[in-house]
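User: Hi! Is it possible to get a structure for several chains at once, not just one? Here's what I have:
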Amino acid sequence: MISMRQLIPALLVLATPAVAQDFSEGSHAKSWNLYAEQPALFQAQVVDVLCELTGDCPENCGGGDRQLGLVRAADDVLVLPNKNSQAAFNGAVAELLPFCGAEVEVDGLLIDDPDLGAVNIYQVQLIRKVGDAEWTKADSWTKVWAEKNPEAAGKGPWYRRDPRVKAAIAKDGYFGLGLETDKDIKELLFE
Amino acid sequence: MLRAISLAGGLIALAGAGMAAEGTRIQVTGEIIDTWCYFSGVMGGPDAVVGSAHHTCALWCSAGGIPVGLLAEDGTVYMVLKIEGSADSAGGDTQLKLASHRIEADGMLYERDGLNYLVVENVVTDDGITVQNHEDYGPVPPFAVPEGER
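Assistant: Yes, the chains can be modeled jointly so their relative placement is included. Here is the combined structure:
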């Protein structure tokens, strides 16, 4: 049985030439000066990607452990948000999880670089439920990390203090090739 | 007539949208990468954001919950959703341990809207880090190795 949610985008897709749509109208996304960025404001449903694709669907979209996606209302395309708005090496799951299953409006940057395979990749900067007036900034990841890692409290960015990252570097070095090799590489590069 | 066939085909195709799809079993070999740095170019070109040069950043991004991908030898990127039973694709331990490693994966491929999604059922081989590009690029980003560690 085809639902209206599926039928309306289907008809839109069939009526539209096979070119990338422009979702920049009304966007207030900040540029990151990326080669293939495009501002994009759109409505979507927040989904658990693994659930969407395979039918493996735990409660609450996996509780923050799984990648979350955005099924765009305009064309039913599954957009993958790789990044939140923080310049701190963190993804978008913590930002989207409070909206699991909800219809939302997001503002951010689409990355469209087919030569690299980057299609429907997204950096989410702002999010709100459809109908809400207030936007939520997509910058909560570091706060969530701090709550999960109280033993790592201290100065400096999270990635210098993260216990798992520190353990990996302590074991295999910054270049991942073992501590002896790491020492040799650093001598080569920095001395 | 053609229009009717197209419409019917489109509706059949879209009847499946939002529902679980059949995957295709594949075996693919490549590097576990950080897909944000690779796709966005934020740290440099694609050759600079793989391998030993980018390893520390790959750890940061994997621990930070950025989706990891498998960059196959033909340049195709597969977004990894699960590895050997672990569906913790947003910062999980399994993917962190494989950061920058070249692996051979056996699993199920799901294609949707231009992206390839991979459920790795078995890591057949783990060759460790094979792309040694640190002499070409140094650490990427340069501050990956802190001043006090140089």
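Residues 25-143 of chain B form one domain. Chain B has one domain: 25-143.

User: Great, thank you!
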